[in-house]
Design brief:
Oligomer: single chain
Distance between the termini: 60 Å
Largest sheet: none
Radius of gyration: 22 Å
Helix content: over 70%
Order of helices and strands: HHHH
Structural class: mainly alpha
Strand content: under 5%
Number of strands: 0
Number of helices: 4
Shape: flat
Length: 107
């Protein structure tokens, strides 16, 4: 197989794979009834994302410096915002903003 045929076949496979993955949710979930599995995924995704972000944030913290204070205050802001509004995006953005203000202005 020469180079141009190889490239065209790769582009065809990529096009089909993209089309199938974009079309699959509409075919699988278009019946109109409530899917319990999909409801579970929709309900549990925000806490999973928040947990991953907290673990990622805490992995590189130097616990013997003032950075731990910034981190703890940011975690408290995240928890308070999430308990108050139950909005994952607001919690993430609010905690990130508080942490960045600390790091940029006080460090």
């Amino acid at each position: 197989m020469n180079e141009i045929n190889y490239l065209l076949s790769v582009m065809l496979v990529m096009t089909l794979a993209t089309y199938v993955t974009r079309l699959a949710p509409f075919l699988l979930f278009s019946k109109g009834h409530n899917n319990l599995w999909l409801s579970y995924i929709a309900k549990s995704t925000p806490p999973m994302v928040m947990t991953i972000l907290v673990v990622y944030m805490l992995k590189d913290v130097e616990y013997l410096t003032i950075e731990i204070v910034y981190t703890i205050v940011s975690l408290i802001v995240i928890c308070v915002l999430h308990l108050y509004k139950r909005n994952a995006l607001l919690s993430i953005v609010g905690g990130t903003a508080v942490y960045m203000i600390f790091v940029q202005n006080l460090a």
